[in-house]
Amino acid sequence: MKMKIIILLPLLLSVILSAGCTSLRNKPKLENNKELQTAEVLELPNAGDLSLTEMETGVWVQLNPEEPADATSPLAKPKDGPYRLGVGDVLEITLYGEGDAETRRVLPIDPAGDITYMLLGTIPAAGRTIDELTEDMRARIRAKLNYVILNVGPVTLGSQTFTVLGQLVRPQVYPLQGRTHLLDAIAMAGGPKVGVIRDVSADIHDYAHATLVRDGEVLPVDFERLVNKGDASQNVEILAGDIIMIPSALERKIYALGAFNNPQGVQFASSETTLMNVVVQAGGINRDNGDGHVLIIRGNTTNPKVMLMDMSQFDSKKARVFKILAGRSLDITLQAGDIVYAVPRKFGYLRDVVKQAVNTFGTRLSSDAAKDIWQQHIDPFNFGTQRPQ
Prior knowledge:
This protein is of the alpha+beta class. The protein folds into 3 domains: 29-62 and 252-377, no CATH class; 90-156, wza like fold, CATH 3.30.1950.10; 161-249, Outer membrane lipoprotein wza domain like (Outer membrane lipoprotein wza fold like, Roll). The protein contains 7 helices and 20 strands.
């Protein structure tokens, strides 16, 4: 009896493992482009847990939205705390009592994060609260003068800023003064820009691809839910260094990013474009860095539809020769706003790849918008580094 149990255990384990969220393996392979275009969107409960080898290529999968914000989530309410000084802040130092006089000096915090004051020399300021700096300076001055009172106050606090880019009336850098939320920031920038299409005023902003970048990562903020549905849970507090980017709905562009030889934003050359065209314009996949997969991300970046394309499947010998580039394989028609991401070798799971692709998209979009503003206002002829003096 014990021998039968030992033999049955491995069989039972294999059945349990195969019954998880890897049902995509059992679906038939796609044979033609027509079938690819009409494929339904599968809503799997744990699609992000699938490895790239478990994903069926050529099938749209709806990625699940982020979990509700908890205490560690970037969408959670930041903890309140005193303001900490930074480079660029300007302080007023007042000294009372020295010879029955009052001495005032206005000092900026220098690039090293210090201030230099009379007898006290260089004093660290960046990263401290005003109270901490005041106590330190009072202790230092008491060692030199007995009957004086020293106070420190702010003149301008310019080290804390955030940036607004894209389709807003006044895209620029704004000082962070007091608690500011996302809707406050959009209002400070004059609100969404309105364009004129065929003599009719129309909104030209694309909230589905709008991003809030913090420390190089795109936060899972749903601008559509915030603006169109008034979802207050998406009205996150803005922190110093945040970048808000609202792209144009009129720009017909596809972003080819990741392990391409020449990652770039690809402009539509005609009424439609295909995956093959975008891969070619991006210089093909870098064979040293790419693992042969291409991920297509479509729709709202907080809860997108994703499709994995395995370039190696197009070669009968699995040699990753990328037959798609020769026009001898399945292709797919892309839409404006799609993100085409050549997957680097380091990723194994779908959730990680999508997160990195959206982060790369958000930072690239912000970088391009900032460059456009620079060219329009400072370098209108696009001289770049060759701009004449």
